[in-house]
């Protein structure tokens, strides 16, 4: 095992810019000088907020030397990250984890809430590789649709943008799973990529069972080390480690993961239902 395998690339970086994506979600940009590694869509960094905590964050922007993470404040670490200003320092380690595999000609990408963070890079990668993309951005309300403005400006060539909101303030009124069932022919696509609330992702998994459509999801579990040492992110019943084997899993892999869509474990290792 090499030092890289244990720690990944690591260092301190200075925040260069903050972009407000919604009223609560912001993208934090920083520069990594002399980058000699690559980040693929779906991979994450362990981000250290000095004096607070270190947490996993998907890479939402990869344009070396400029790198970005997109954060929704839900607790102490994410709120501290959200209050950073330009020129503040953070620590990063990584990249870690599996990435989305691009083996598609016509893809449906569905992002729920902050689940859009890893999908942003994926959408650009799919388009670069000539894949026909339909992107469904889902949230509780229009104000919470992450990257809506950015993707609204994307050329419509081989790209369709749809939205769904629980309150009907943008696009389909209702859940993303219902939007797909009622508005789209899912068998039109060869692959569905998704990230968001686990109940949404398990809903898509159920819809796709028995259909000839590939499925890739990005899962979230509580993490400490982020690189396969502590076992905190192990999932039942296989013991798969989300930080190493995931966060991106295929439909076939999910067949073995009995806790998917049912429960996760908190920082004490106690089971919490979704
Ligand atoms: C691979 C990966 C990539 C991620 N990418 C992003 C991202 O791009 N943007 C972003 O905003 N967040 C992302 N997250 C989630 C983020 O890491 C957590 O929200 C953060 O660690 C919470 O820390 P906190 O101190 O703010 O909240 P805490 O005070 O620790 O938690 C607040 C609440 O959220 C729950 N919670 C915390 N972490 C998780 C988790 N991993 N899964 C389920 N529930 C949890 C807690 O049980 C608690 O109820 C990612 C997580 C993983 C595993
Ligand atoms: S977070 Fe430590 S093994 Fe995954």
- The radius of gyration over CA amounts to 18 Å
As residue ranges, the low-confidence spans are none
Largest sheet, in brief, is: 7 strands, antiparallel
**CATH uppermost class of the largest domain:** Alpha Beta
Bound molecules: flavin-adenine dinucleotide, FE2/S2 (inorganic) cluster
CATH topology (level 3) name of the largest domain: Rossmann fold
The helix-and-strand class reads: alpha/beta
The shape, in one word, is globular
Cα-to-Cα separation, first versus last residue = 36 Å
Spatial order of the strands forming the largest sheet: 4-3-7-1-2-6-5
Task: Let me know the CATH homologous superfamily of the largest domain.
Answer: Nucleotide-binding domain of ferredoxin-NADP reductase (FNR) module
Number of domains: 3
Count of DSSP strands: 18
Q: Give the name of the CATH architecture of the largest domain.
A: 3-Layer(aba) Sandwich
Q: Order of SSEs, N→C?
A: HEEEEEEHEEHEHEEHEHEEEEHEE
Please estimate the helix content: 10-25%
Number of helices: 7
Report on this structure.
This protein has 274 residues and is α/β, with parallel strands linked by helices. It has three domains: 3-96, Elongation Factor Tu (Ef-tu), domain 3; 100-217, Rossmann fold (3-Layer(aba) Sandwich); 219-274, no CATH class. 19% of the residues lie in helices and 34% in strands. The protein is built from seven helices and 18 strands. It has helices at 3-7, 76-82, 116-128, 148-152, 176-183, 198-208, 251-254; strands spanning 9-20, 26-31, 44-49, 53-58, 61-63, 66-71, 89-96, 106-112, 132-139, 159-165, 172-173, 191-195, 214-218, 234-235, 240-241, 248-250, 263-265, 271-273. The strands form four sheets. It has a seven-stranded antiparallel beta sheet. Helix 6 (198-208) links the parallel strand 12 (191-195) and strand 13 (214-218). The mean pLDDT is 95. FE2/S2 (inorganic) cluster binds at residues 223-226, 228-233, 241, 243.
């Amino acid at each position: 095992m090499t030092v890289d395998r244990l720690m990944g690339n690591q260092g301190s970086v200075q925040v260069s810019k903050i972009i407000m994506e919604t009223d609560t979600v912001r993208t934090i940009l920083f520069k990594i000088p002399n980058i000699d590694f690559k980040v693929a869509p779906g991979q994450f960094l362990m981000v250290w907020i000095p004096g607070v905590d270190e947490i996993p964050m998907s890479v939402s922007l990869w344009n070396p030397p400029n790198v970005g993470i997109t954060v929704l404040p839900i607790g102490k670490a994410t709120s501290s990250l959200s209050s950073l200003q330009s020129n503040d320092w953070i620590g990063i380690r990584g990249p870690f984890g599996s990435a989305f595999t691009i083996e598609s000609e016509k893809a449906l990408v569905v992002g729920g809430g902050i689940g859009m963070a890893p999908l942003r890079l994926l959408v650009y990668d799919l388009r670069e590789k000539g894949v026909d993309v339909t992107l469904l951005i889902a949230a509780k309300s229009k104000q919470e649709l992450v990257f809506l403005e950015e993707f609204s400006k994307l050329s419509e060539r081989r790209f369709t943008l749809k939205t769904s909101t629980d309150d009907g303030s943008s696009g389909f009124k209702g859940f993303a799973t219902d939007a797909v069932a009622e508005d789209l022919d899912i068998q039109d696509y060869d692959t569905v990529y998704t990230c968001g609330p686990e109940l949404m992702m398990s809903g898509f998994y159920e819809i796709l069972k028995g259909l000839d459509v590939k499925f890739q999801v990005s899962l979230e579990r509580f993490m400490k080390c982020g690189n396969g040492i502590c076992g905190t992110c192990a999932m039942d019943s296989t013991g798969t480690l989300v930080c190493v084997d995931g966060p991106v899993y295929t439909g076939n892999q999910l067949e073995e993961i009995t806790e998917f869509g049912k429960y996760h474990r908190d920082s004490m290792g106690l089971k919490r239902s979704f």
